[in-house]
Amino acid sequence: MNKLITLILIFFVTNLYSQRFITKEAEISFFSEAPIEDISAKNNKVSAVYDDETKQLVFQLNISDFIFPKPLMQEHFNENYLESDKFPKASFSGIVGQLNESTIATGTLKIHGESNEVEVKGILVNSNDSVMIDASFRIQLKDFNIKIPKIVMYNIAEEIEVTIIAKLKEI
What global pTM score does this model have? Predict the structure, then answer.
């Protein structure tokens, strides 16, 4: 019994000294540059958590929260490509590496029911009560089993640039 109480106290005390940061308003956007048409979208309803002690970083979003300049693009994105009714969420869970001008986080990105390891380059600035993240990475649609019909292959790039901007507050 004493060991159990000791373990609980150690866990509690360790968590007291760990700084955790959170937001529900991070922004993730993507850009597809293709010969016929460029496509971009933004999602400002992204949840993110960062633990300064463990360097664990997690993002989660609803696919249907991406907003496009044209409603028809948004409809095709949700119905035909990302199938947001079948795969409603996307997430990233990883570890932040070096804290310098080119911070690198590595982890698992899950989109469209597929998980792949990604490397994210950018900047993470940790002040006393907040963390700012400005990062980007590229993904291949085929890695996430996102199929592009041949009829629109010149409208949508096979590689998409993803950008993250987040300000997390200490909890």
Answer: 0.86
